[in-house]
Sequence to fold (236 residues):
Amino acid sequence: MVWLTFYDGTFTHKLGTALPSAPRNSPESLRLQTNDGRVIGHLATAELGYKNDLFNGQLAYGESQDYLRRQILRLVFSPDEKLTLGSQIYTTQALDGYQAMALSKRHFDRNANHYAFDAKWQEPRWNLKLGIAHTRAPKGEGALGFYPRHMTKDSRGTFTSMANVEAYMADGETMLGMEAEYRMTPEFTAGLLGTYGQFDYQGARVRLGEINAFGRWMPSHHKLKNLTVLAIVGPG
Fold:
């Protein structure tokens, strides 16, 4: 990934081109590809942002060659040092190469949108975050569409909605999310993660959800300062 970043006071904007890259778990360089295995020559992105003590906003644009085009609006408002309100809007359009793929290879037909809102309350030893999101990703022939997080295979897209897995981004789905953390000691934090989603498909109401308990240990010893141990357990 090659980024060119320019700063002008509190305004920033970034222009970049994603070159053929490798997943973090792969030792081999892989080319950017479509869902049906065709090579994508380039992926270009740009971002404009503004930040001050109360507000943080980014407007981003991206396009993978003849495949997908995306716009992202992220807003964060902090009216109080303990309260943070966030909103994200993701819109994606299918280009000719995407629409030419077989239906089984496409996440959606022509347009897919995802809308999210969250609120976080932060105390010295604990925090609570609640979120809601809704997805529209129509797909023809009675198939179920999903919002695609990534612009190509072997690339990773920025996505900060609490609906952070495909199961909670189905067409027409509304998702509710919860995250709670409590710092029991300076080194150990425990918490709960909960997600619930609901949508209608072929005349039936589909509901899914999960709740997980987690523990995170970050030792303070100078020889282990970069170590984090995380354990998660729960039904899904």
Observations:
- Residues 81 and 215 are 26 Å apart (CA to CA).
- Confidence is low (pLDDT under 50) at residues 5-9, 20-27.
